[in-house]
Amino acid sequence: MEKISLGVLVMAAGKGSRMKSELPKVLHNILDKPMLGYLLKTLTEIQAFQDLRAEVAVLVGHGGEQVSEYLKSFPCLTVLRQEEQLGTGHAVQTTRAWWEKFDALLVLNGDLPLLRASTIQSLLSLFQKSHASRCACAILSFIAKNPDGYGRVIRSESASSENIHIVEHKDASPEVREVREVNAGCYLFDVRSLSSVIGKLKNDNAQKEYYLPDVLTLMNAEGMKISALLADENEMRGVNTQSELASVTSAARDAILFDWMEKGVSMLDPNMVWVGSDVKLARGVSLAPLVQIWGNSVVGEDCEIGPNCVLRNARLGARVKLVANVIVEDSDIEDDAKAGPFAYIREKSLLKPKAFAGKFVELKKTTVGAGSKVPHLSYMGDAVLGEDVNIGAGSITCNYDGKQKHPTKIGDRSFVGSDTMMVAPVNLGPDSMTAAGSVITEDVPSGALGIGRARQKNRADWVYRKKANE
Ligand code: UD1
Ligand code: CA
Fold this sequence. Notes:
Radius of gyration: 31 Å
Bound molecules: uridine-diphosphate-N-acetylglucosamine, calcium ion
CATH topology of the largest domain: Spore Coat Polysaccharide Biosynthesis Protein SpsA, Chain A
Shape: elongated
């Protein structure tokens, strides 16, 4: 295959007025990630791009500060600006100085989150094949169930070849509106051909905009060759309104879940499960209804995630069981550990193998050692629990003095009596115990019992005497 230098321009400068939102359109979330992120991730998966050392630029304009901020997490991108958004044709005109150095230019609408790498790859192959026969432009089209709003692809046979041009919905006659083949917003151009016509665009149309699709009409007039590749509608749906965003979100979710089910993940009801696109699940994982797994979460083999659990940047080893209503954020749970129902595990907490955080338990920045248990109604913050520790019900680390957070250390095999308040900073040595109801303000040496409570007194017959007096 002929090696060409390739520029990729993602157009993301438009306002997205039809979203009726202050947030720039491309930053609207699909599941847990801005829609622009999906397209950019797809671009990194295209093998041909790596072979061609393709350069990617994102054009920002409306809400440019916010979009640029988001783009900082993609180090290899060039950010270009379109100060005034006068249409997609204008977007390509504005960036001419950047793309003129390439042989070919791929232009993509920024609102194509479901587009797959293999489809771009096919467009590239078609272009490279027909490039030898002087193809000036190859576009993706699809047959729309409801073509409203899209540019219609008009194919007209001439004696020698097929002519393809695009008529925008707002400029289309009733007959043209009957056409259901539409422009997807993905164009691959021969740069020299594009350069020769891009300056000639006019904005004498219904929207008073410079339309990129009009380039095709100009190319036709010069006798240049254009190809259109039919793609799948589900993949090519653009997002222009909140309801399109919702339906694309649900399609994205279905695709992600289908993929995981193919790899051996089970779900009682996939209509009631949400998994983000960067999550990794292992074989044998089971997901109950109302489970949400977001961010860079990783769930190991045979984990059971019970109803109503929410995981965000959580890493679970193998065979972890989250009973129900467990929230895990930025924390790790190792093999065979168990949590819930109703546990909140957050801010770099760690449950080591076979550890347990039970009912109404909150862990913050806390390590629970192997085999250790925090079974009921406890708060452990900034604490390190060794192995085989048992924390009695209702025990709390008093880690905050109103200004600063302080650490608590609980040694291996310690037994903390129910309702112990551990006033941090404090250390409980290995094999130590605390008496139930203690307020522990001083370290407990290893093997010692710490008691910090008033001694009980019984007043004999006190109740009977009181009743007799009434
Ligand atoms: C566009 C196409 C239409 C196609 C449809 C597919 C045009 C004129 N029409 O219509 O044929 O069927 O996409 O979804 O291109 N943008 C800029 N700068 C601008 C204007 C737009 O960067 O000045 C960006 C937008 O942020 C967006 C993309 O270009 O990501 C497409 O713009 P949009 O307004 O969504 O175009 P459509 O009307 O959907
Ligand atoms: Ca659009």
